[in-house]
Structures are given as structure tokens and as C-alpha cells.
Design brief:
With 192 residues, the protein is α+β, with helices and mostly antiparallel strands. The protein has 2 helices and 9 strands; from the N terminus they run H-E-E-E-E-E-E-E-H-E-E.
Length: 192
Amino acid sequence: MPPRMRLRSLLPWVLGAILVGVMGFGAIWGFSGIRSSSERQPDKLPAGNTNVQESRTPTPVSSAVFRYPPDGETVDSPLTVTGIATLPSDKALWLLLKPDDNPLYFVTTISDIDVDQSGTWGSPLRLGRGPCDEGRTFKLYVIAAPRGGIIDQEKARLPSGQYLHLEAIPSDSLQLAKIEITLGKYTSESQC
């Protein structure tokens, strides 16, 4: 028999040996892709399991980014700070301002910042006290705070129209984004 014919006659045996080897290797390492109906993972939890909530819609994770101004920018005041955010319904978006030479964090609005359905948000900001603050650096923080949490409780204690200042970012809140900006020109009526 010619050598080529001998190889062809051995081909089924070689392929069979390879298949048996692969299946054996899979069985040793638990890689069997074939499962009986009793081994398949159920699509649903057993009816008696009350410790796990079945939910098909995941809860949104709090996240936010600044769109304007970008980090490191020199800006004129007043300005509108904008960004994009995703929040669960039990969280509120707040913008905090911290001057570099001041230990306090100032809540920049009287109420939480509205996030529209596309996730866009915007908040007016008067940066600095007046022209004497031109050239000073400030940090801006976007935080997610629980509705009814520390910020809401502290704001309820203030006289109407007064802005809240904090010694730290509240412990029940999550810092989502931070930028540092410098005041260029102060164009509002306030003076230092």
C-alpha cells in the first residue's frame, strides 16, 4: 500500500484519538459543555427562596462628569457650570465650592441640581466675592447625596435664602467628580 493511502486509512483513528483526548481533558478539568437537564442552571430562582430579590432593571449607579468648565481652566464669574450625571431616584446632585485658602465647602445652590432625562445638568455659579478674588483658585465638587440626608437636614435649619457651608463633604454623600478652576475676571456687582 502506498504511504499516502496508509495515512488516509489512519486519519479516522487519529481524529478519534484527538476527540477522546479533548473530551478526557475536559472531563478532568470540568469543561464539559454537555449537561443533562438536571445539571442545567435554572433561569429563575426556586419559588421558596425569599432572601433574594429578583430584579430585571438594575439600579443606576451614581456618576457625573463636568462638561464646563474643564479642569485647570481660568473662568470669568458669574458662569454656568454644566455636566452629565446618572443618579438613582433616592439621590440628589449638589455642587460644592471650596476656595483653596478656606477650609469650608460651600453648597452653591439653595436646592439640589436638576438632572434632565438625557442626564444633562447645569448650575449657575458666582465664583469669588468680587474683583479681589481674581486669580484665586477654587475646587468644584459634584456629589450625590441621599434625599433627606445631611445636606437636606442642615439646609432645613438655615434661614430662607442662606447658603450652607460645611466643614467636609458629608459622610453620607459620594464625591462623583472634582475640578480645579481659577477666577479670571469678576464681572458681577459684588465688591470685596
